[in-house]
């Protein structure tokens, strides 16, 4: 079937398309690449496994749509509504989703490498095991999102709102999280090697067993954080706040806490042999 025939079916509306689709469960051969749509309501449509590479969609409503396994690489979906959509295992590399609404969307296992998600909304979205390497998420809102096991190495997450999100076992190595909010976030066993976290809010977050080797936590807020067993070797914690934090059994070799506030911090069992505490405020019992 030619692309024109598929476009005609789309023009007949979502109900007609989905009814036809029930008899066409496998559309992996359907090529809708570089299709251009504007001002269309496709909420709830089933476009799973469809080829939409390089598509251009403007003011299209794809909320609650089924795009599982679809190929949307290099598509331009800026500002589009994908709230509640199923994008699991989809191919979204080099896609433009800046300012898009992806709140409560299912992006588990999706390939978003090199994507543009600046200022997008991903509140309560599921991005577990998703690939977001080298992606730009500056200014994104990702409150309460799930990113367990996701790969965000070298991603840009500056000035992002990530409060309450779950980054457990995620790869954030060399990512830039400067000036972001990760209050009450879960980063258990997370890889943060070489990450830039200048002026970040990690207060009350769980960083138990996190790998922070060589990370930059300059002026970061880690008050009340659980850093039990974390690896902070060579980490820059200058002028950071660790009031009431738990650093028990943490490895602090060659870490710098110059002028940091460490009052009421728990250092029991921590390795502090080569730690620099110059001008730091230390606990009463030290």
Short description:
By secondary structure, the chain is mostly loops. The protein has helices spanning 3-11, 14-21, and strands spanning 36-38, 56-58. The mean pLDDT is 95.
Please give a structural write-up:
With 286 residues, the chain is low in regular secondary structure. It contains 2 helices and 2 strands. 58% of the residues are buried.
| Beta-strand fraction estimate | under 5%
Order of helices and strands: HHEE
Specify the biggest β-sheet.
2 strands, parallel
Strand order of the largest sheet: 1-2
What separation lies between the terminal Cα atoms? Answer: 76 Å
What is the total tally of β strands? 2
Radius of gyration: 22 Å
What is the helix fraction of residues, given as a range?
under 10%
Structural class: little secondary structure
Mean pLDDT: 95
| Low-pLDDT runs | none
Shape: elongated
Please work out how many helical segments DSSP would assign: 2
Show the helix and strand layout.
Blueprint: H1 3-11, H2 14-21, E1 36-38, E2 56-58
Parallel strand pairs: 1-2
Task: Label this structure with key terms.
286 residues; 6% helix; little secondary structure; 2% strand; two-stranded parallel ribbon
